[in-house]
Amino acid sequence: MVNIVLVEPEIPQNCGNIARTCAATGSRLHLIRPLGFDISDRAVKRAGLDYWHLMQVQDYENLEELFTRHPEARENLWLATTKAPRDYTQASFGEDCWLFFGKETAGLPEDFRRANYARCIRLPMRQEARSLNLSNSVAILTYEALRQQGFPGLSGQGEMAEQE
């Protein structure tokens, strides 16, 4: 199981795309407030997120609440940041890992990054590029974590395999 943590996400479309990734992979989504959008049942239905029922989503007032409710997260966390000293291929994503992503305009809080320096990773990209889209970054790291775990609970083949 992969736990995706979005710290103060701002753009509802990104969260919707990330929610779809979580639904498809069986990952859990954790949202740290404040949120830049409404996640009430009514808002979710209006947005057409028909896969929301396939997900486990929890929200928290702040990071402290998340760590109080899930102390195990401190043991197996990874922080995605463009400021990281190493790329994600150097990370070993264990079972039930926690992947943290910051808000679109500012990333993860500096004090949180500094406190977890050894667990900060980045996606390689051209120096002139500021960053990738948040939902793309989440998808890349989620699938890498699942690949390292052997894609537990996910189908290893598509319907074309049945045609052979």
Could you characterize the architecture of this molecule?
The protein is of the alpha/beta class. The chain is built from five helices and six strands. The chain has helices at residues 12-25, 41-46, 63-69, 110-115, 134-148; strands at 2-7, 28-32, 56-60, 77-80, 97-101, 120-121. The chain has a six-stranded parallel beta sheet with strand order 3-2-1-5-4-6. Helix 1 (12-25) links the parallel strand 1 and strand 2 (28-32). The longest helix has 15 residues, at 134-148. The protein starts with a strand and ends in a 16-residue tail after the last helix.
Task: Tell me briefly what this model is.
The protein is α/β, with parallel strands linked by helices and 164 residues long. It is built from five helices and six strands; from the N terminus they run E-H-E-H-E-H-E-E-H-E-H. 29% of the residues lie in helices and 16% in strands.
